[in-house]
Design goal:
The protein contains 11 helices and 12 strands. The protein has 292 residues and is α+β, with helices and mostly antiparallel strands. It has a 5-stranded mixed beta sheet. Strand 1 and strand 2 form a beta hairpin. The structure holds fe (ii) ion (FE2).
């Protein structure tokens, strides 16, 4: 059995190919396109995986993609009815959704010579994250945790893995997100590019966690192990923050609201020098992330 796994229309688009349970090839699209974090449909990574396996697209039995638009349907509906996001925000989400309507169509366009005759499986985003860790781990039974920006309306999920089963026991839903917390504060520290979080992590050891009081205002721990953001410091839930996921370097608009400048002091411009207060802020962000 040949399974092709895809991360598509998201940063770090990638493909992998598994034959009878054995990994044959895996690659990120950025390696072929030479654009860091390339987002879109990973046609070159798929081509590479097929070549490594010595097969054509027609031999693939199953394609798994790490997103399921049907997941968390009722929480999405409830949220939309309760919060009434701006029509521009709803439109932009729908456009992004429509863009990756058909994986089979994308495959047909990218590989006109190979006829895909297999089945496409849409795997809920966090279940895919949990599976990518647990199913290849040496453990028969384990607690499993996934934390990211967002995927399928969730930003975190946790549960139990047993054998080849994973039971999700809890989630954090949009607009609360530890990934968005880290990304927004990374922007505030003057690192605007997608994926710049590692710079904040690298900066953290130079400072001291002097701003934990402010951090605990931004992120609140819940008794069930989850967390919430104080949304007054963020824009992603209320405005149409530009997220570009198609055909190039991912671009993200400003995620934090002016209230964050009032809490932490003025945002650092990218060209400004890094001062001790920036080191301390980086350390505090990292410490808050670890605390959660
Ligand atoms: Fe994710």
């Amino acid at each position: 059995m040949i399974i092709l796994g895809l991360n598509a229309y998201h940063a770090d688009a990638a493909a992998c190919l598994v034959r009878d349970g054995e990994l044959i090839a895996a690659a990120e699209e950025e390696r072929f396109r030479r654009i860091k974090h390339w987002a879109g449909f990973p046609s070159e990574a798929i081509r590479y995986c097929l070549e490594e396996a010595g097969i054509g697209l027609e031999s693939v039995d199953h394609v798994a993609i790490n997103r399921d638009p049907k997941a968390n349907f009722w929480p999405k509906v409830r949220y939309t009815l309760a919060k009434r996001p701006s029509p521009a925000l709803v439109l932009s989400r729908l456009r992004n959704r429509a863009r990756w309507g058909s994986v089979a169509e994308e495959l047909a366009a990218a590989f006109p010579d190979g006829k895909f005759a297999g089945t496409v499986h849409e795997i809920e985003h966090h279940l895919a994250h949990l599976a990518s860790a647990f199913l290849v781990s040496p453990f028969e039974e384990a607690a499993v945790v996934s934390v990211d920006g967002f995927g399928d309306f969730s930003s975190a999920a946790w549960g139990i893995g047993r054998g080849s089963d994973i039971t999700v026991e809890g989630r954090v839903l949009f607009p609360h997100s530890l990934g968005i917390f880290y990304q927004a504060l990374t922007q505030h520290l003057g690192f605007p590019h997608y994926g710049d979080e590692y710079k904040v992590m690298g900066l953290a050891p130079y400072g001291a966690p002097t701003m934990m009081e402010a951090m605990r205002r931004i992120v609140r721990l819940e008794n069930d192990g989850g967390f919430r953001l104080d949304l007054k410091y963020f824009r992603h839930h209320a405005e149409n923050v530009a997220y570009e996921w198609v055909g190039g370097e991912p671009k993200v608009g400003r995620l934090y609201a002016p209230a964050l400048d009032e809490l932490l002091g003025p945002a650092r411009r990218p060209a400004e020098p890094l001062e001790p207060r920036h080191h301390d802020l980086a350390r505090s962000i990292q410490a808050m992330f670890e605390e959660v």
